[in-house]
Amino acid sequence: MRVLDAETQAQELLRGVVEVHQREELLQRLARGRPLKVKAGFDPTRPDLHLGHTVLLQKLRQFQVLGHHVVFLVGDTTAMVGDPTGQNDARPRLTREQVLEAAATYQEQAFKVLDRQLTEVRFNSEWLAPLSLEKVIELAAKRTVARTLERRDFRERFEQQRDIHLHELLYPLLQGYDSVALECDVELGGTDQLFNLMVGRDLMQRYGLTPQIVLTVPLLEGLDAKMTEQGHIIGKKMSKSADNYVGITEPPQEMIRKLMQLDDTVVWRYFELLSSRSQPELQQLRSSLGPLEAKAELGLELVGRFHSPQAAAQALEAFRATYFDAGVPEDVPERTLPCSDATLWLARALVSAELAPSTSEARRQIQAGGVEVDGVRVRDEQHQLARGGRYLLRVGSKKRRFCYVVIPA
Fold first, then answer.
1. How far are the Cα atoms of 11, 37, 213, 215, 374 from residue 60, in angstroms, in the given order?
2. Would you state the pLDDT for residue 291?
3. Hey, how many other C-beta atoms are within 10 angstroms of the C-beta on 186?
4. pTM score, two decimals?
5. DSSP for 72-93?
6. What topology is assigned to 6-217 in CATH?
7. Which of 11, 31, 3, 33 has its CA nearest to residue 280?
8. Distances in Å between the alpha carbon of 356 and those of 18, 290, 335, 353, 395?
9. What pLDDT digit, counting tens, does each position of 228-251 carry?
10. H or E element in which residue 8 lies
11. Where are the domains of the chain?
12. What architecture is domain 227-325?
């Protein structure tokens, strides 16, 4: 547990947060000096998690480290209703058996991030299952259809004359009633949950309670994400369907291999959202590590969290032996390449390092899978090398040629 003043706590807790309603309220409650009651709800609709799912868990863990009380809310009733968020059509409804089976696995994986001893686990069937029809009608009377149709996915389906089932309209109310039942100070959720979280804040006021503060965390981009020169992340969110994910139950060496393939420009985005290190610690790391070392450090932390520090170290050593050390000559030349922009185009770096006669030939080699950067094959012909790094470039397979390139910060 770390004892910090309200402003310092707020800076730490709001790291990586997209929206906060309202920051001043958060500061006021932190200044009282008592632990805040913080919740996040999870509808257990899938049995396995990837790193994208743990962004929210890591934010909950930050609250725990600062001495606040965390409620891990299992939406066993709402999961059977089905969250319509992001759906163009109604989600298929799950049975209670399916929900409870997924919930058990979900909790075990969640406690790889959260402190089990400091976490209160609740099921929303405790208060939703006993609701009488009279109470449901009273709850429904707190919201209007017009306000509900402001929600983007409902509005789009309504405008396209696609079905919206009545039970879907109930979902935001039922999730919002969780906030009434638990009377928490803060509720966390992904950016896609903002509408539901704000319904909870609104309902608390309508029931005469102090409204919860709402924090949303971003949806983590997948392994194929990149950052533009303007500082914008581009790429799909992490998901199995996009095959750009790192599963937290995957073998350590597979996790390490995937994390080492991250684009240099987004590794610090992963640190910001997934690391348990404080902001000053991250700033120190950023000033002292190049992209390759940063990815290795990220891999050690995350694999160590979900497996063990020993497994992480062994996996990294195996990766380096397989993809980096093996077959690299001792007399590899090194060149320092000037760069006036934030990044240097890989194809241009290959030409400057005399590994390709022209950028068009360099692009052809990249597309054909004949180019590696720090032991990782690159197929994106627009791949960029960030300033401040030292990279091992390799071209060819049978007749391999190498060069270390340094791009000054």
1. 15, 11, 14, 11, 34
2. 85
3. 23
4. 0.73
5. EEE-HHHHHH---TT-SSPPPP
6. Rossmann fold (3.40.50)
7. 11
8. 43, 25, 14, 8, 8
9. 878 888 888 998 878 899 999 999
10. helix 6-13
11. 6-217, 227-325, 334-407
12. Orthogonal Bundle (1.10)
